[in-house]
Amino acid sequence: MLPDSRTSIAMPLFLLGAAIAASFLASSGPVQWMDNGMFLANAREGHYFSESLGPLEHPLYQLLNSVFFTLFGPRALSLLNSLLLVPLAWIVYRLAQSLGAGPRQAVLAGAATVLAHGVFWVSTKAEVYLLHTLFVLLAYTLQFNDSNRLTPLKKLFMIGVLTGMAASTHQLTFVVLLPLYLHLLYLYKARVLITLPGFMLGFAAAAVAVFNDLNTGLGLLDIARRYLTGASATIAGPEWQGSLLRFDELLEERNAAILVLLSLIGPQLAGLLLFPKESRLRLLWSAALLNLVFAISYNVTDRFTFFLPGVAMLSIIGMIQLRRVLPHNVTRSTLLNLSVLSSPTVVLLAYSLYANGVIHFPEHKEKLPYRDDIRYFMVPYLRDRSAEQFVRAYEQVVPNGALIIADWTPMGAMRSGQAIGLLGGRRLAMCDDNVAIRAALNSNSVYLPRLSYCETLTQNYGLEEQPAGYSLQAN
Fold it and tell me: Where are the transmembrane segments (predicted)?
């Protein structure tokens, strides 16, 4: 029997298990930068439900995080996304099989998904996108399930529930599931409305936020618009409308766009380029392409994290297509196995060349102490504990009672550090917060981890460089 046979899944299973284990080993730990640290810190506060449905809210993820933190603590919470790789691999396996892949190709698709740059990066952080990807992929898996026990109405209702759960996790839901709903509308016509009560049930985690917003006088359309884009005529806050579909910014923001494309290294690239003939595969391909177009044109730095559902879909399509185009011999089995390792191999090789000065990558204008931006964003396969290193070092620099003013990135590290007992007694404030700096200088001291994003604060005060960051001095 050829090694490419359906029963020969020992090596694919080993690759999948090793990939998931590698995520645990590469975890960034209980102290993390940016949003990731904020998620960890917010979980400690015990707010199980979002109070308002703003654009930065993720009600179901917040509920899960808070419950998980209460039960298991911060260190276990930092490993939650590594744990979620197990159900992700199972869903990819089931979805791949429903699309015609054999057990071997289905397991390899799961391994390729886990090892893809964006998926692996998110798995090592406290981040919302992996949980969201589970619900989105489950919706497609359910649609392609041919079980006689699932009547069309049952299937539509359950897809509605999954849509609601995904939507209460992240707004990306409405992009990735659009092709599926157009397909459902074509198949079932008016019966697709049965998804609405399912959606309401799945969206239950956001119910408290919706009721609170209704009590403030907002209408349902206003609430929906604010949740999706941040735009609101009555509530101030961040807006994303100006960041959507910014193809005109791709050249200027090419570094962020390239990070999205890193997730195409591997069988995913074959899945994108080899257009499938089978209708189910075409539906999945169109969803993945729409996801890619949206992610790469979304004008934010971490846009690569928006591409996780598309990565999984293209991994499945790629494995199926590669099996068809590669010669049917012993070599095919080896090539399919090796394709799974493409992403870590290419990324680690490029980083080694960069680290040895052979090639150059652009870096942030003002580095954060202890963080190598290239390694942090580009090489998730190597463990990065720079946030915890920074907080522990900063604890030695900043005296008890001092005020620390920082931008979003180091603030996430410091708040998550306080959640595990570091930086105790230090007060934290954002750069744009209205804080009494002069009073703080008179009573104690004021520190800045870096000057970027806080330049206006330095106009009226002197600066003294510290081993990590700066301290403000009264003029």
Answer: 67-93, 156-182, 188-211, 256-275, 282-298, 304-322, 334-354
How many whole angstroms separate alpha carbon 147 and alpha carbon 272? Answer: 29
pLDDT digits (tens, 9 = 90+) for 302-346: 999 999 999 999 999 999 999 999 888 778 889 999 999 999 999
Q: 443 or 45, which is more confident? A: 45
CA distances, 92 to each of 9, 15, 88, 355, 423 (Å): 15, 15, 6, 35, 42
Q: Find, among 102, 104, 107, 106, the residue nearest to 18 by Cα.
A: 107
Nearest to 393 by CA among 471, 469, 473, 463: 469
pTM: 0.94
Structure confidence by residue, pLDDT tens digits, 350-372: 999 999 999 988 776 678 888 99
How many residues in total does the chain contain? 475
DSSP-H helix ranges across 152-194? 152-167, 173-176, 178-188
Reading the block at residue 356, the tokens are 């040895």
| Tokens 């209704």 -> residue | 214
- One-letter amino acid identity for 392? R
| 44-306-317 Cα angle (round to 5) | 125
- Backbone region of residue 245 per phi and psi (left: phi > 0; alpha: psi in -120 to 50; beta: other values): left
- Residue that the structure tokens 């589970």 belong to: 134
Task: Please choose, from the candidates 428, 409, 427, the residue with its C-alpha nearest in 3D space to the C-alpha of residue 369.
Answer: 409
C-alpha separations of 125 from 81, 275, 283, 301, 344 in Å: 7, 33, 30, 16, 17
**Structure-token pair, residue 152:** 């069309």
Cβ atoms of residues 472 and 463 within 8 Å: yes
